[in-house]
Amino acid sequence: MHSLKFNNTYVTQLSSLRFYSYVKPAIPLTNPYLISFNDIVAEMIGLNKSSNLEDLLCANVLFPGSVPVAMIYAGHQFGYFTSQLGDGRALLLGEVVDNEGNHWALHAKGTGPTPYSRGGDGRAVLRSSIREYLVSEAMGYLNIPTTRALSLVGSKMAVYRETVETAAIVIRVAHPSAFVRFGTFEIFSSRGQHLEVKQLADYVIDHTHEFYDLRDKSATTKYSEFLIQVARLTGYLVAKWQIYGFTHGVLNTDNMSILGVSIDYGPYGFIEDKWKDYIPNHSDGEGRYAFDKQPTIGEWNLMKLVTAFSSLVSDEHYTVVSNMYWKTYEDHYGELMRKKLGLVTFLYSDKLLWEELLELLDANHIDYTIFWRKLADKNKDSTYPELSSWFVKYEKRLALEASYGQRSRTERMNKINPKYILRNYLAHTAILKAQKDDFREVNKLLRLLRRPFDEQPEMEQYSKKSPEWAKKLVISCSS
């Protein structure tokens, strides 16, 4: 009935004695019900929607060909090394191949205990599952590399966190290598299992398009260039986060994908009227993972990855990888920032223009997303009188663009400056309704966030600043 084509390379190419544990969900999700089904992602992987999908989408019943495993890894968490982590509440259900030969991993979150649960119940709550489901799609349509979300299934099964909540399961979809983390290499390196570091690197290289060019290279260059490519992918990702004001919240090395995609959404947030020291995670008291610290943390995590490859590359790679990361980050950030400003030519002095602007936005508590969207408006000067001196410089810079730069500027700017983002209060409102069995807001936001750059007049209220009460929202790590 469900003709997904499974080809489980992670299981067939790597040993269960080291890289994962076979797990069959032992405790079914009680009376599951489908809250939302992402037809676009389903079509992408070749899954047709039909009745009675709930049991398959919460792993109560396995798809034919599915071989569920829990992946093992370690990680630096808030700067301190934890020697063994792993999929404590998630399962790699398997890999499917679409009609074009692309591989997609189905990764279910909230399926119950695994050998890596460390005493936890292995469940995810409805609250955090809604947040992950929605932001996965929001990021995808902002053109930020991310895992996608296939489905959201709910249940009345009780889950005990700060309060009693109900269980839910999200199936995440991405290339299989996206779920290989920096920490997956760290666990083997920390144990002196250098052969496993090499085997895992070879697996990723042999099965991932971004690394195909390295397959036939000698051992002396293959792993060196692998790390350099990971640095590029990571720099590209972090630049995208900074451009759109996204803050991950928990940038541990076990939450960093080797493929440079956003994974493991917990206490995330988009900046609004403050970007300096913005911290969405109430557990991050020192602000280690604040919005403006993300670029530096990206490099810090890469240095831990280089350490994990110390048996395969020389010490000079700390500098090589760092330089590549920062070059990629700064080049891509600059390219995107010029587009946000509506510029088509390059001047070194442009950096001073956007740096001054960012300082003014922060100092004057101006909403980040709304400002950028309004920047293309003819009456922007009167909307933001506190920026009047900056606008004089901006207009002079625009005048240097000549006529070809003037044409269609508004249209170009509106293709990179979104009108709609997933503000925390929007997700919170959808959660409150869902907890009363009203899931219409979840699906309404899903539709909204698929068109973040479009005007959508009927959704105008979703583009407004967050209300005052929303400033008191606390996003928890618990899920």
TrEMBL record:
Transferase is among the record's keywords: yes
Cofactor: Mg(2+)
Keyword Iron-sulfur: no
Alphabetized InterPro entries for the sequence: SelO
Keywords, in A-Z order: ATP-binding, Magnesium, Metal-binding, Nucleotide-binding, Nucleotidyltransferase, Transferase
Protein origin, superkingdom: Eukaryota
Pfam family, one: SelO
GO molecular-function terms, A-Z: AMPylase activity; ATP binding; metal ion binding
Family: Belongs to the SELO family.
Protein name according to UniProt: Selenoprotein O
Source lineage: Eukaryota, Metazoa, Spiralia, Gnathifera, Rotifera
